[in-house]
Design a protein that fits this description.
alpha/beta; 6-stranded parallel beta sheet; 5-stranded parallel beta sheet; 18 helices; 14 strands
Length: 430
């Protein structure tokens, strides 16, 4: 991996480099995505099945597009029982964590007859997109579905690509059953997003779409936003390790590679105050990479977006971490909790040598759907709040309104909205 001194120029170049990975940086795909969405809107199922045959080489129909209970049973029988037990343990952790995020309706009443409040309601329907291309991600099913279940969403629709035989990955189907998905359809790509957003004869529309995907899926979600809600426009995965001389170089190297193996656009960055550690980590990265199954992807990822930066001191390193605002931030320092208090921008923070990033991906409980490409400066991880909506509640008695109605009318008059003012005054006509 490249080792550089962390200077202001290096930091700015790095930030510019990372932003190139944003889905918004690929306008050449947008026209194709718009074409797919437009055709699904016009032709419905016919376009959906045509694109599935074109891209996934699978022939589907209105009778076969939805995964049946028999197919789910068959798939669950193909999944190792030990893996099913691990999934069930993970579900307990994920549900327990997200139940602490639940919000409740509240009402505040006064003696003069004023009642104000907020009514919290779950969304009626949610679409969950699950990738099925380079790899299957049953963990993504759990992380997207469980907070929706905790929020109280009744209809949870999953779309995921199938293979040539029209089969969906068994582990994905097993995770969907365990998590509580209500409908599963064998479609993927931008065409699946269009079907969820606008509806077809086979797939009724939903209110919100969540879940990761490739550049076509990301741009399709961006295009349908407004017709439906979405979680975010996710970019490639990324990890930043903040370490001092106390860090174990093998741990650091292994954790960097855990994200670099996702795809060629993934980013893996170490910022350290120890030049010795920087060189040790670089050597360990080479040793690990030589024996890992996704060696080619890792090498391209590290070549494009892998960095080891040596900072003058810990404060400089922390400032850089806040600027990068990484999806995953590991803190491997003498006092990780003290450093954590100075971090403002990160999707998820992993503290200490035994909180490896994959713990968050699969098992600990916090959501692994996180803001990428610096958006941790203003976005949060996926959670229960993403699956509810809030309505304001206002009730006034005549006695409560009378002392202040003229103030409200005056405000409306100031904005030249005479009908607004009249709506208040008419209640006190002689």
């Amino acid at each position: 991996m490249k080792i550089q001194k962390l200077t202001e120029d290096v930091r700015q170049n790095l930030l510019e480099d990372l932003l190139k990975r944003s889905p918004g940086s690929y306008p050449e795909y947008e026209s194709r995505v718009q074409e797919i969405i437009g055709r699904v809107c016009r032709e419905g199922d016919a376009a959906l099945f045509s694109y599935t045959e074109q891209f996934d080489k699978a022939v589907l129909s209105e009778d076969t597009v939805r995964v049946t209970e028999a197919e789910i049973e068959e798939a669950c029988g193909q999944v190792d029982e030990k893996l099913l037990e691990v999934m069930k343990k993970a579900i307990v952790n994920i549900r327990s964590y997200h139940e602490k995020q639940k919000r409740y309706s509240w009402f505040d009443s006064r003696e003069d007859g004023v009642l104000l409040g907020q009514k919290v309601s779950p969304l009626s329907s949610v679409g969950v997109y699950v990738p099925g291309g380079k790899a299957a991600y049953p963990s993504s099913v759990l992380m997207n579905v469980i907070p929706a279940k905790v929020a109280g969403v009744k209809r949870i629709v999953m779309t995921t690509p199938c293979n040539r035989e029209g089969k969906v990955n068994p582990a994905t189907l097993a995770a969907a059953r365990e998590a509580g998905v209500t409908e599963i359809y064998k479609v993927g790509g931008a065409q699946a997003i269009a079907a969820l957003a606008f509806g077809t004869k086979s797939i009724p529309k939903v209110d919100k779409i969540v879940g990761p995907g490739n550049i076509y899926v990301a741009l399709a979600k961006k295009a349908v936003f407004g017709h439906v809600s979405i979680d975010s426009i996710a970019g490639p995965s990324e990890i930043l390790v903040l370490a001092d001389e106390t860090a174990n170089p093998r741990f650091v190297a292994a954790d960097l590679l855990s994200q670099a193996e996702h795809d060629e656009m993934a980013s893996a960055i170490l910022i350290t105050t120890s030049e010795a550690l920087a060189h040790q980590v670089s050597q360990e990265v080479d040793r690990f990479t030589a024996s890992l199954s996704r060696k080619e992807i890792i090498e391209k990822s590290l070549e494009n977006y892998g960095y080891i930066l040596v900072a003058e001191d810990l404060e400089t390193a922390i400032d850089a971490a806040n600027e990068i605002a990484s999806e995953h931030l590991e803190i491997l320092t003498r006092d990780p909790f003290a450093v954590m208090m100075k971090i403002r921008n990160a999707g998820a923070m992993f503290l200490g040598p035994y909180a490896s990033e994959p713990l968050g991906d699969y098992f600990a409980g916090p959501n692994h759907v996180l803001p990428t490409n610096g958006t941790a400066k203003f976005f949060s991880p996926l959670g229960v709040d993403d699956f509810v909506k809030k309505s304001s509640i206002i009730s006034y008695s005549r006695e409560a309104l009378e002392p202040i109605y003229s103030d409200v009318a005056a405000f409306a008059d100031c904005e030249h909205l005479t009908a607004h003012a009249n709506s208040i005054r008419v209640r006190f006509e002689e």
